[in-house]
Amino acid sequence: MKKKTQLDRLTGLPFLNSVYPRIQEELCIRKEIGYIFFDLVDFNELQEKYGIEVCNKLIRNLGKTMAQQRGKLYREDDLVAVGSQSPTRFILFLFSPPRRKLRFATNDLKLITSRILQKMQNIIREKGTRLGISDQIYFHSGFAVVIPDSSLEVDKVIYEAHKEATLRAHLEKVMVNLISNISHELRTPLTCIKGYAETLLEGAMSDEELCRKFLKIINDEAHRLERLINDLLDLSMIDARQVQMRCKESDLVKVLNEIVSVIHPYARKSNITIKAELPGEIPLINADEDRLRQVLINLIDNAIKYSHSGGVVTVRMTTDRKEVAISVIDEGFGIPETEKDRIFERFYRVDQGISEKSGGRGLGLAIAKYIVEAHGGSISVESCLGKGSTFMITMPLDELWNKDEEY
Length: 407
Ligand code: ADP
Hints:
Layout (H helix, E strand, L loop, with lengths): L19 H10 L3 E8 L2 H8 L1 H17 L10 E4 L6 E6 L11 H25 L8 E8 L7 H48 L6 H32 L8 E3 L1 H18 L3 E5 L7 E3 L1 H17 L6 E8 L3 E7 L22 H6 L6 H11 L3 E7 L3 E9 L11
Parallel strand pairs: 6-8
Antiparallel strand pairs: 1-3, 1-4, 2-3, 5-7, 8-9, 9-11, 10-11
Helix pairs in contact: 2-3, 3-4, 5-6, 6-10, 7-8, 8-10
Bound molecules: adenosine-5'-diphosphate.
């Protein structure tokens, strides 16, 4: 006997698991099926804040909006369902490609997704205001094309389609964010260079002192731009797994002593004292010295940048012959507990203002993490807001002896 479709009381739409038989049938006769989902984000928080009644009204309206698109944004024969476990998820199965095409085109699926999303958002805005909801309400949405596979159970097919749709949506978001971050980062120094160059051309050049001052700013910004482009190139090489570690026997104590003496004058300018607590010697290790130097300079530079005038930055190295640990300790601003894990993400900056003023681009730690991990090590941070931070790199000594592969 055919299983009866069970309808969700709130939206009047069928539950996903009760439409499996229909999907199974369609999978047997179709070359492709389109899968689109819409998921209301943070519904639990909304419920806590505004109560079940209000939120149920929202869901009911969303279900109605979905159903009303039948014959407009999708065909009469297509199927809409609500998640069996997550009632805030709406799923649309398209059984034939739009515009009489033979295959589902990405652009068509994208268009349908964004049109429905727009309708949902309009409803949320209208209804939400009437119901007294002041929060911004967001959706996750995505799409995938399902190719029937007779060896898979229908629930597995749907699960895989959902995974693919989520991943695609995530990648798209990452790309959009990345491009907007990069554009922003490039535009800031360029605007500055353009502004000062224009002022010079408009007449400021005749004042020698002003001219020198503006040229210095232009020069600094051009360097900043160059550093940014180098970091972006490093990251794209990392993504393409084209970073070659050029390892050789290295004396890390010597490397750290060199860095500290180079950085001393810069620290003094910011009225920061640098203390080096290094062992007399440690075994030579097989490492990419230039890249480790880049990481350590970044950590010490950060410790100075994010410290108050008069502070102390300590660079400490310890080893127990199995492991070498390098800590960069500051008494500066510190990092809020909630942000600690995020600072290793690309372009992530805790305080945009402070970081940007000091030339920060939020890329250094992402690169540092990669380089340290490529040496078989790890990087971590301990921090107390307002009291300071300790960045610690540990690298197992054994690992360092075999590192000349490509990463
Ligand atoms: P940036 O170039 O912005 O410094 P990083 O990737 O090196 O980029 O650091 C990411 C963010 O982590 C910084 O913008 C800053 O908010 C935070 N951060 C890094 N090091 C420290 C530190 N020693 N003290 C406080 N905050 C820090």
